[in-house]
């Protein structure tokens, strides 16, 4: 993916009372930025964390708007891929219950469960910043063009979740049954609430290592998690980011928060710029969001709002401060001394 550096990036922002129309218009405003020449395989990554809360999933109408835009421009293979969250329904069952399979014949799309896809092993860091291995879905790594389409939500570990986090976390593999899913969630809670060097922290860490759930394995405490998201952004960055901000989630996101009616959609071929606009609209300072700060600092995209060209709607009338997650103060403790040596 081409580095943006200090150049300006474009983000299309649309406000209206129709979800489909908002997304389609946002994409049309940046159509000249979306180059599909020579692309043979597109991977579309929705956010289907859990189907128990509609605010935690990418709405079917949002996906239809994106597919209409794509099919007007390409006949290449399009795969919709997701790896549902820990303790949730298996991905294919979620696709079926949400009506996604109705798109198969209409748009000639394929579906893949990223939790059970072929794997590519990559290196991230543990709580002590030592190398560990996680597995990414091969369909995502090998895609010629990756598209992330999701809602703007607050998060229980990294303040906000938008296009990058949607792409990365859903692409990590997990294999579990009901019991191991519950134990994984318990281990994650222990990891976040206790020092990694404590007895309980070490026991939880060992369980996470052996669980077979790499989504949980990524959660090595706030500092390492933010750095790990940046590290995987270098491997599987979205080429196109689409945020369905018709309604967002505040409070105890990314699964159990409350709705925020925004009536917005925004999109960009620069995922850092897109997610920076998300942070701004949600009332958060980019400098306080570790993984996005790292991506901007390393030149993966543009996070300086003064260097982001917003086309369509002015952002000034779209800002609505979201209530953060209850753990927001602790989430700010992500800074790592001398982090520059990890950003290469």
Could you characterize the architecture of this molecule?
With 344 residues, the chain is an alpha/beta fold. The chain has one domain (18-175, 212-334): Rossmann fold, CATH 3.40.50.11440. It is built from 13 helices and twelve strands. It has helices at 19-29, 60-71, 91-97, 103-107, 138-142, 163-171, 178-193, 199-210, 214-217, 222-233, 271-281, 290-297, 328-331, and strands spanning 9-15, 41-45, 77-82, 109-113, 119-125, 131-137, 145-150, 153-154, 160-161, 240-250, 258-268, 308-312. The strands form three sheets. Strands 4-3-2-7-10-11-1-12 form an eight-stranded mixed beta sheet, with helices on both faces. A two-stranded antiparallel ribbon has the order 5-6. It has a two-stranded antiparallel sheet with strand order 8-9. A hairpin with a 7-residue loop joins strand 10 (240-250) and strand 11 (258-268). The protein is globular and about 55 Å long.
